[in-house]
DNA sequence: CAATCGTCCTGCGGGC
DNA sequence: TGCCCGCAGGACGATT
């Protein structure tokens, strides 16, 4: 599932490869990421926006296959293949990307601690895990990294934000940065269909501590990792390290 | 308004 | 072996 680190990996690769190329007579001036969105800007201020959702792939000079839903042809003969097995993903061209971008909360890697505290205080009765995944509050975090962040911070996924003290809030904040940066350094997590713009898998899965580790032992304390449903999403945690109280 | 729940879709794994 | 059922999940819309 492409989350912030996976989209960031694709963004960096595509930026190197397609800035300056022309698509539909328009020149590509930038390739950006906003949350989990990949945004290709053109010189007339329009943008091509992608959301890869669960199974989307963007392959530069990739070979079209049965999974391919769209091929973008650049004027120099190179191309960009958009694959999506489960068809949840989308792309669209907009005259100006500002309206879409402003629906998102601050970038997970850019938000400062006071702003993060403010975000949590606005939702005192929210469970911390679904709130971390709510793009309107913080942009970029999905199911894999919310589990890994809360494990690193030693916070139970069902904790209500009003029960978090200053130290715990800071732990979550610091581990958002730490986990996402580490995942980017390893080109993201290849679970299900994720591959980067060159068709390569990310290496961060072997650094996962809890995600899809149900029944295995916690690497800190040896307790068996549990899986529960939170808002109908699989949620993995260590019942000892991430105690509810 | 905030929080929760159903929905979209398809590949895959378990069970018989 | 092959079929069927249920599960997985981001984000939107409906509901409470």
In terms of per-residue confidence, which ranges show pLDDT below 50 for 5 or more consecutive residues? Answer: none
* Cα Rg: 19 Å
* Share of residues in strands: 15-25%
Determine the number of helices (DSSP H or I, runs of at least 4 residues): 6
Sheet with the most strands, sense and barrel status: 5 strands, antiparallel
Mean pLDDT over the residues: 94
Shape, principal axes of CA atoms: globular
Helix/strand-derived category reads alpha+beta
Percentage of residues in helical conformation: 25-40%
Q: Could you give the count of β-strands? A: 10
**Strands in their spatial order, largest beta sheet:** 1-2-3-4-8
H/E topology pattern: HEEEEEEEEHHHHHEE
Distance between the termini: 31 Å
Layout of SSEs?
Layout: H1 4-18, E1 22-23, E2 26-34, E3 37-42, E4 47-51, E5 56-60, E6 68-73, E7 79-84, E8 90-94, H2 98-101, H3 113-121, H4 128-132, H5 143-153, H6 166-185, E9 226-230, E10 233-237
Antiparallel strand pairs: 1-2, 2-3, 3-4, 4-8, 5-7, 6-7, 9-10
Helix pairs in contact: 1-6, 5-6
The chain binds a DNA duplex (16 and 16 nucleotides) through loops.
